[in-house]
């Protein structure tokens, strides 16, 4: 039989830490391997398969593909317009630019901020983002990603990008000036270990953006589209962002991203300022229309809030019983981090042996990103195995 793991190593550049599991198919909250072993999937493709493995997405893709898969952006296309219209009619957005990925959405936003700054003066091109943030791996996205370990081998990156301490108002004030054109922020740092923005910090950032006339870009690539129990995580606060960047679950598993801009920024790009061959693919947008319609027109967001509260309260109970293993429980909705210190790998390995797939981030944090339709029975199944794993570590 073909050895897929060996062939993968032989033919593909070694940039990913692959699992030994070979997945055959997905259904609801589960992934099945080639022996029909059934694994509870707490990754959801790192928050891409937010609706689980949903047949409705498959049908939307097939129906559009039967008409055409691609046209080029010289032609209008109903699914692309329909998805943009859903955003404009149901969110702060006034217009949309479609991309293929998260990092490309941030690249679009970098250019939008720079063009906005240029309108005022030549030197207004500085961009700010937080240390420990994650905004992607292309040159611009990586410049914003405030983690030296990702940047080190690729320096120098974009000029004019500066980093501040997340949730540290004094640090932000120090970095902001008349030359700032954009500030990129995650509402919950996902790759940074599930760390939530403070109310004080976000309101200060908005105040500074008015004082120094720069754009606030909220990177909702991981937090957006229902993950935290709201359509966007920023909705917890009483704010209107200038720009929101999206991707991950937007295309229901197909590559799709978006940059949403508020009223007043519709003219930030003109013809020829930006573009993409595949950005806003009709097939990906047809899947996106299905995904966004579910989020807007069903009770799913309320369910995510309810299940998130349930899961977080159960995890906090475990933290009280096993403080030696569980140092912290953080997050909102179904985006949850459990800081288990040095026990991360032990817990992950035990869980796989017991048919639960757990992801980790930031070296000590188990990151839970289950599909949004995960049931309470499935949550209890996870908690049972998770407690058994903790018991092993607690010895
Ligand atoms: C907050 C955030 N921004 C940007 C990105 C980059 O997205 P992509 O991998 O689609 O380029 C990610 C990916 O994990 C992310 O979590």
From TrEMBL:
EC numbers for this chain: 2.6.1.11, 2.6.1.17
Keywords: Amino-acid biosynthesis, Aminotransferase, Pyridoxal phosphate, Transferase
Name of the protein this chain belongs to: Acetylornithine/N-succinyldiaminopimelate aminotransferase
Family from the record: Belongs to the class-III pyridoxal-phosphate-dependent aminotransferase family.
TM segment ranges: none
Entries under PANTHER family matching the protein: ACETYLORNITHINE AMINOTRANSFERASE, MITOCHONDRIAL, AMINOTRANSFERASE CLASS III
Superkingdom field: Bacteria
Keyword Manganese: no
Cofactor(s) essential for the protein: pyridoxal 5'-phosphate
Molecular function GO labels: N2-acetyl-L-ornithine:2-oxoglutarate 5-aminotransferase activity; succinyldiaminopimelate transaminase activity
Pathway: Amino-acid biosynthesis
């Amino acid at each position: 039989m073909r050895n897929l793991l060996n062939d993968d190593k032989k033919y593909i550049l070694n940039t990913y830490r692959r699992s030994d599991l070979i997945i055959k198919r997905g259904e609801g909250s589960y992934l099945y391997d080639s022996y029909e072993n059934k694994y509870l999937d707490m990754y959801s493709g790192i928050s891409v398969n937010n609706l689980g493995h949903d047949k409705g997405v498959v049908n939307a893709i097939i129906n559009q593909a039967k008409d055409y898969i691609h046209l080029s952006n010289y032609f209008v296309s109903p699914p692309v317009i329909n998805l943009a219209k859903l955003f404009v009619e149901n969110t702060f957005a006034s217009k949309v630019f479609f991309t293929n990925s998260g990092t490309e959405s941030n690249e679009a936003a970098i250019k939008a901020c720079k063009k906005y700054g240029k309108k005022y003066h030549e030197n207004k091109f500085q961009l700010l983002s937080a240390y420990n943030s994650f905004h992607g791996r292309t040159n611009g996205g990586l410049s914003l990603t405030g983690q030296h370990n990702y940047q080190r081998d690729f320096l120098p990156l974009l000029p004019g990008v500066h980093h501040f301490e997340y949730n540290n108002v004094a640090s932000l004030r120090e970095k902001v000036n008349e030359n700032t054109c954009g500030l990129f922020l995650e509402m919950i740092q996902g790759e940074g270990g599930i760390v939530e923005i403070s109310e004080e910090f976000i309101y200060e950032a908005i105040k500074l953006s008015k004082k120094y006339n720069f754009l606030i870009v909220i990177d909702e690539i991981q937090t957006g589209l229902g993950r935290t129990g709201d359509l966007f995580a920023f909705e917890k606060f009483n704010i209107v962002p200038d720009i929101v960047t999206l991707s991950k679950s937007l295309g229901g598993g197909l590559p799709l991203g978006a940059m949403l801009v508020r009223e007043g920024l519709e003219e930030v790009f003109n013809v020829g300022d930006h573009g993409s061959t595949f950005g806003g693919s009709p097939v990906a947008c047809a899947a996106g229309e299905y995904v966004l319609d579910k989020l807007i027109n069903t009770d799913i967001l309320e369910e995510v809030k309810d299940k998130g509260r349930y899961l977080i309260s159960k995890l906090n109970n475990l933290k009280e019983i096993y403080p030696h293993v569980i140092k912290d429980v953080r997050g909102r909705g179904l985006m949850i981090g459990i800081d288990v210190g040095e026990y991360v790998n032990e817990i992950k390995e035990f869980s796989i042996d017991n048919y639960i797939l757990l992801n980790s981030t930031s070296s000590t944090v188990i990151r839970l990103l289950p599909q949004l339709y995960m049931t309470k029975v499935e949550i209890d199944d996870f908690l049972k195995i998770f407690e058994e794993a903790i018991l092993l570590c607690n010895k």
